[in-house]
Write a structure and sequence with these properties.
single chain; 547 residues; alpha/beta; Transcription Regulator spoIIAA; two-stranded antiparallel sheet; 24 helices
Amino acid sequence: MEVFRGYSRENFIRDVGAGLTVGVVALSLCIGLGISSGVSPTAGLYTGIIGGFLVSALGGSRVQIGGPAGAFVGLVALIVAQYGLPNLLLCTMMAGVILFVMGALRLGNLIKFIPHPVTTGFTCGIAITIFMTQVRPFLGLQLENEPAEFLPKIAALAAALPTLHWPTLALGAVSIGILVFWPKRWSRVPGSIVAVLLGTVAVAVFHLPTETIGSRFGGIPRGLPTLAWPEFDLQHLSQLIRPAFTIALLGAIESLLSAVVADGLIDDRHDSNQELMAQGAANFVAPLFGGIPVTGVIARTATNIRGGARTPVAGIVHAIFLLLVLLVAAPLAKDIPLAVLAAVLAVVALRMGEWEEFALLHRKPSGDVAVFLATFGLTVVFDLTVAVEVGMVLAAFAFIKRVADTTQVHAMTGEQVAQGGQGHEPVKDVPPGVIVYRVFGALLFGSAEKLDRIIRRSGGETKVVILHMAAVTAMDATALNRIESMHAKMKRHHEHLILSGPHTQPYFMLERAGFFDALGRENVCADLESAVARARELLAKPAIHRT
């Protein structure tokens, strides 16, 4: 309700204008995305109406537009093919619960930890998936049962190429021309609506023998969506958990990225947790009316902003417009040719892919390149669930390796200690039998093995090891275990370990683990100078008393 403070008639007029504009754009996209997802065009419209209303009314962004998204096309089609429509509805509701819980637990900021190569990889993969779903209607191929999987789909499309329908191809090609060149001259009227209107008129006037919504789906029924709890198969419930989490994760990423883009365009700051709860509510409610997964969509949100939107009223108007179309003009949609919708979605797919990433691969670290290509390839060939899981695991390994590479353990001679620098003050007269190791970076499980070299090198003439930790930013349980092992080995050989300069997180971790008591608190020194002084004291003691 905060947006209505000082809400004016001018704001209302701008919101209504923007809502109608984005509603016109969303109309063809909702229908096309519903068809491409393996469900009915009606399901796409229901998603835009209910999801769009709830995202705008409850969301954390002033101008976010919610509805069906191209990001879900391949995943939704695969779930429908494997488990059926009722289980898709249940899976979407489960994702809604997950999203709501994420927002309620204030996990919205965790999305920023999704690595860039993962997001760009599956975005490009999704674009290819959407494009491939449009090949059959764009070419007018005769293919009754089109496989959902990529490789079987390629084989089926290739086998069906002899049935190519030239009038359908011509209609699709003209539609792409309109979509590409129309906005360059007349940007106020969306090119997608122009293409749909002209394509529908052409089919009606010239009686083109091409597939339409009416011939394929029997048209779009006029009337309000009805509330019904979906029937589902309980034996598939456990199998739906993974795709439900994938829908939730993808929806969270897509909606929050869209909200961030919107913030930059209107100089605002969205509430990520509120946005996730709104997305959760939308994904739980929409399937009760036959809808599919909902998320915030960047293209429609940007259209909303360019149309002059100021508040969520614009998004609500967009949902009301779609509802009015469903109630009043639904019968007219039966003449919309599928080739035109295929052209619209093909252009959307090509524009959503971040293709410049391929040209920049040679400039990026090999770990990031591997993550990007693996996520992209798995999204295209298998499915988004596998792609995200593998991509995140590979990104984690790349991160661990990067951290390990930046962590350094250097032995310093007495002369180097006396010269100072490199994170320590100059200390003279380091006695024989004392060796100083300077540790720099984070001591995590990927880099803790570097402490093993200290354990291997201790012995011989070395009587005291000083571990200078002033430059250690963080450590974990594995590093703690290595330090404990080092201390135990040195104790067995009547040698001493001194810690120099541990602070913040490493200090408190060692304290909580009780290591300071085991080591002896007198062997934990604030700086290198006091550590060397402590080493002199230990060396001055008779060997029989050393511990």
